[in-house]
Amino acid sequence: MDADEFRRAGREMIDYVADYLENIRDRQVTPSVQQGYLRKLVPEKAPQTGEAWEDVFADVERVIMPGVTHWHSPRFHSYFPSATSYPAILGDILSDAISGLGFSWTSNPASTELETVVMDWLAHMLGLPEHFLFSSKGPGGGVIEGSASEASLMTILGAKAKAIRETKAKHPDWTDGQITDKLIAYYSEQAHSSAQRATTLAHVTGRGLPTDEEQSLRGSSLAQAIEEDRAAGLIPFYVLATSGTTPHCAFDNLTELGAICQAEELWLHVDAAYAGSAFICPEFRHWMAGVECVDSFNFNPHKWLLVNFDCSALWLKDMSLISQALDYNCPIIRPNPDSGEAMPDFRHYQVALGRRCRSMKVWFVLRMYGVEGLQKYIRTQVGLAKEFEKLVQLDDRFEMMVPVRLGLACFRLKASGEANMRLMKRINDSKRLFLTHAMLNGQAVFRFTAGASRTNSADIHHSWKIIQEEATDFLKGESDQKK
User: Fold this and answer.
1) Helices 417-429 + 457-482 axis angle, to 10
2) Which of 22, 99, 197, 408 has its CA 20 to 30 A from that of 464?
3) pTM tops 0.90
4) Which helix (H) or strand (E) holds 270?
């Protein structure tokens, strides 16, 4: 493919992408294929000679689209949203064309410097403390990771290295292995599974702590666990607090947890993967009260801020605590020059050496939407979830299980948990909607997110009508079976 062919194919693909997104309501939300479908549609081996673009492009609809779950459909109400926008796509096109591996400033100066700029921009937008900004000229700053799971792993590795150094200073005869065996990290029982996975990968013990009636991890629960574990000879060193849990969008109490972590000298990390985007709106920032006490803060612009995957923003009060834990030198990598403003080597804040320029799409989105445009988007989505809540409350067959928090509604049929699961299967099998469930106080509840960027009020009413129709048929079938 030469430049002229690329221009022609590029125009064709851009038109296809625009048509796909603008007409996505016409597509079935989830595919009807069986596992292994795709291998039957393609040759066993790669072609020996190159194929024409027209043949490749034709196979997008024939091979790929039949197996696509359409995350950006307004009928997709599962998980949490996966963001995208035209500015973000354009940013990725440019980043892919440059294709520079920005593992250090020298390897790609623009990539490194743009990342420091957009991370400061985002920190200002969220109202994060000054010490998280590069512009503060302190030890803090931010880095774009691939996911919140990666951010949790990086921070727990940094906290682990710090805990080992501090413990060795008190017990010089203890080995790293002996200290590691005593380390224990905490997170709420409502935390994402990545919290437990991070402790597994870091080879430390993790402990899930009970939450209050609002599914929030409180200081009293943490304090009791610390007391118990210290008495057992363990070394508490890390707490992962969640702002916007996956099951119910609950918020751990950062003010209480922060005070305890500071007194006990524990690293406090905040996983705000979904909810963090909402903090660009001042009216939602009460949920991050106490953020001035945390050591690291993370959210995913790729969930709700119109930046396509992958893009997870992580801020650290002291960036050296992770770089010291993960620092490695490779002879082939040229050192950064001594002149000018010091810049971070982002390779020291991730598992891989190479890294793509994720900051480009963030820069495009922030410039083309502006803060006000993104705030309007978030507020509209929250309003749609509130609208759905009102519809549920008008049907006495259903009940809301917790008040709507941001863009997530948790509701259920007034029936057994088993009946709710059968109804959800019926709804999902219809391919008209896609829902997931969570457990709350031992009961199965539906999770309904109003997250796709094109979702509007008519879509919310359409989805609710489908749920009502499926519920009517389901309950009629249940009644007929009892006769």
Assistant:
1) 120
2) 22
3) yes
4) strand 267-271
pLDDT < 50 positions in the chain: none
Query: How many angstroms from the chain centroid is the CA of residue 301?
Result: 8
For the CA atoms of 41, 43, 47, 52, the dihedral, rounded to the nearest 10 degrees, stands at -20
Tens-digit pLDDT profile for residues 149-203: 899 999 999 999 999 999 999 999 999 999 999 999 999 998 888 888 899 988 9
Q: What letter does residue 119 receive in the DSSP assignment?
A: H
Got the DSSP string for 363-391?
HHHHHHHHHHHHHHHHHHHHHHHHHHHHH
Burial (Cβ within 10 Å: 0-12, 13-18, ≥19) of residue 62: exposed
Instruction: State the Cα–Cα distance between residues 188 and 356, nearest whole angstrom.
Output: 33
Q: Which two tokens stand for residue 266?
A: 């524990």
Whether 91 and 98 have beta carbons less than 8 Å apart is answered as: no
Q: How many CB atoms lie within 10 A of CB 172?
A: 7
Residue carrying structure tokens 């020059």: 337
DSSP state of 244: S
Nearest to 111 by CA among 285, 315, 358: 358
**Positive/negative CA dihedral, 427, 471, 78, 73:** positive
